[in-house]
Amino acid sequence: MKYKQMVTRRNFLKQGSLITAGLAVNKLGSATAMSAESYRRVEGANRKINLACVGIGFRGGEIIKEFDKTGLANIVALCDVDMGAEHTREIMGKFPKARQFKDFREMFDKMGNEIEAVTVGVPDHAHFPICMMAMALGKHVYVEKPMSRTFLESELMIQAAKKI
Known about the structure:
Radius of gyration: 22 Å
Shape: globular
Order of helices and strands: HEHEHEHEHEH
Structural class: alpha/beta
């Protein structure tokens, strides 16, 4: 009596990975075609993006620092309702060339054509209006959970993101 090889999760993943790798190599002709080196040839792939940051204290400040560490973000605008407070001064000092605003609507009105993406690091109840305005202007948005307060707000944000 022959024993059939038991299908375990580990075996399934291992065989699936081998098949996927084989198909990728076969389709592209070589494994090196998928390396990071090929991305350097893509025009604009390593260009810095102009980033506006709404909410620059506490968690918003941490988000800005992480984006800055990548070396791929050019912080062009800082926005917080409490500009000049102790918890926002560090970020303001780190990016002195960035224009400063207290109202995100004013920031979008004055700098909308200079901004490519927006980080949202404000209290949860304010995520929806900021994200919707940014997406209506065709901006990419980074927002942490909860994305919104209600299912309707989430659905509206998803629909707006699909239009970008």
